């Protein structure tokens, strides 16, 4: 049976496993609404995550996934008009993107944004200019041997998969409390997807709290603990990743898989 928005509140209360002893989740998004100019896009999204959990944020093209991630990262567009966001007891809804980054929100956007003209290593070092720092270069290269081999190569000349590795590595080079991965497998050949998947698995083992947006829903759901499906800027399902994998009706209606 589908769980729709109007029953969502009940479901959040019913599956209330994400609250810590203090009664607060590690990460919590409460009824956020955001706009691109006059366009009302994120229409009341709520999420809860425990420390170390992975959430798959799914939905059709144009459902509002990227907009939700951008709102969480406190990028100016879309503008958050209403709602609250908390990470580890700190409010984010009243912060700018650079402050959210300081508090540990790291967004790896769909287009990866590798800085042109800079080598792999320079891209990594640049993200460590601002405090607080995350992983040292040595540790990054241990986890990403392909980047170590290519440390002097210009970042934009890397293959798509390598650029995705660099984008993730750059996020880890800063202190990360919540990693936001927007379509990390997009445009990559299956064999490269497997490599990125193994990196995401390592991230999971390290206990980094993560939200992953993916068109490849099955791949994301296999890694995720929880799943939220959005449609037209609203939550239409919230539950465990397993429930989505097991619910064909839900997958047919919202995910086309
Ligand atoms: N800068 C913008 N200005 C106006 N509308 C926008 C802007 N960016 C996105 N939108 C609109 O917001 C809606 C949600 O877009 P969003 O990019 O969040 O979807 P998505 O779920 O990430 O889709 P996809 O799976 O295709 O990446 C879409 O209707 C889109 O056209
Ligand atoms: Mg998107």
Automatic annotation (TrEMBL):
InterPro entries xref list? AAA+_ATPase, ABC_transporter-like_ATP-bd, ABC_transporter-like_CS, BCAA_Transport_ATP-bd_LivF, P-loop_NTPase
> Which residue numbers delimit the ABC transporter domain?
27-257
Record-level GO BP terms: L-amino acid transport
Keyword tags = Amino-acid transport, ATP-binding, Nucleotide-binding, Transport
Q: What SUPFAM superfamilies does the database record attribute to this sequence?
A: P-loop containing nucleoside triphosphate hydrolases (SSF52540)
Q: Which GO terms describe its molecular function?
A: ATP binding; ATP hydrolysis activity; branched-chain amino acid transmembrane transporter activity
Give the protein family: Belongs to the ABC transporter superfamily.
Q: What is this protein called?
A: ABC transporter ATP-binding protein
């Amino acid at each position: 049976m589908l769980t729709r928005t109007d029953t969502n509140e009940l479901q959040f209360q019913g599956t209330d496993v994400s609250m810590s002893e203090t009664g607060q989740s590690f990460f919590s998004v409460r009824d956020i609404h955001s706009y691109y100019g006059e366009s009302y896009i994120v229409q009341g999204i709520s999420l809860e995550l425990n420390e170390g959990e992975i959430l798959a944020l799914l939905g059709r093209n144009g459902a509002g996934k990227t907009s939700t991630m951008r709102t969480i990262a406190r990028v100016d567009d879309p503008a958050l008009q209403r709602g609250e966001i908390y990470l580890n007891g700190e409010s984010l809804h009243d912060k700018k993107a650079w402050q959210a980054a300081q508090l540990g929100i790291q967004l790896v956007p769909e287009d990866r944004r590798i800085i042109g003209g800079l080598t792999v290593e320079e891209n990594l070092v640049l993200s460590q200019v601002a405090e607080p720092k995350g992983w040292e270069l040595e540790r990054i290269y241990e986890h990403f041997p392909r980047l170590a081999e290519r440390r002097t190569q210009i970042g934009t000349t890397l293959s798509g998969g390598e650029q995705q590795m660099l984008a993730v590595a750059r996020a880890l080079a800063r202190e990360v409390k919540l990693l936001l991965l927007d379509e990390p497998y997009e445009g990559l050949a299956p064999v490269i997807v497997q490599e990125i998947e193994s990196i995401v698995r390592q991230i999971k083992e390290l206990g980094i709290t993560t939200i992953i947006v993916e068109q490849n829903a099955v791949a994301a759901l296999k890694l995720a603990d929880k799943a939220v499906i959005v449609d037209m800027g609203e939550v239409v399902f919230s539950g465990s990743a397993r429930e989505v994998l097991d619910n064909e009706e839900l997958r047919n209606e919202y995910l086309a898989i």
